[in-house]
Amino acid sequence: MNIIEFREHCLSLPYSTEDMPFDDTVVVFRLKGKIFGCISLDQHDRIVLKCDAEYALQLRELHPEIEGAWHWNKKYWNQINLNGNLPDDLLKRLVRHAWDEVNSKLPKKERVDFP
Question: What is the three-class DSSP state of 46?
Fold first, then answer.
C-alpha cells in the first residue's frame, strides 16, 4: 500500500474527512472531527493509526514494521512503516480498526452504523 491507496481507503469509510491542522505537510483523517489516522507528506513511507491499547502491543510484538507513534500517545497510536512486509489486507483492517476505535468513543447518537 502506498500513501495514495492509504488516503483513498481512509476516505472510503463513512463520514471520513481529511485536513491539515498542524502544517502543510501533515494530513489527518477524521471521523466526525476525531482523528483516526495521519500521514506526513515528508515521510510518506509511514502512517499513524489509532489502536486499542492491548491490540497495539500485540501488533508491535508481531510486526517489526509497527511501533509506538512518534509525537502521539504511544498507548493508543501506532506508527506503521509501509516499506515493510505487511500485506495490504492487514493495513486495510488496521485502518478500519482505527476508524472503529474512534466511532466506538463517539456519543451513542453520533455513532455510525457501518458493518
Answer: strand
End-to-end CA distance of the chain: 23
Pairing mode, strands 26-31 and 34-40: antiparallel
Pairwise CA distance, residues 22 & 112, whole Å: 26
Are the C-beta atoms of residues 36 and 56 closer than 8 Å to each other? Answer: no
Q: HSE on the CB side for 24, CA within 13 Å?
A: 0
Mean pLDDT across the chain, nearest whole number? Answer: 95
On whether the CB atoms of residues 14 and 29 are closer than 8 A, the answer is no
The C-alpha cell of 50 is what?
A: 489509532
pLDDT along the chain (115 residues), means of 10: 93 97 95 96 92 97 95 93 93 98 96 90
pTM of the full structure = 0.94
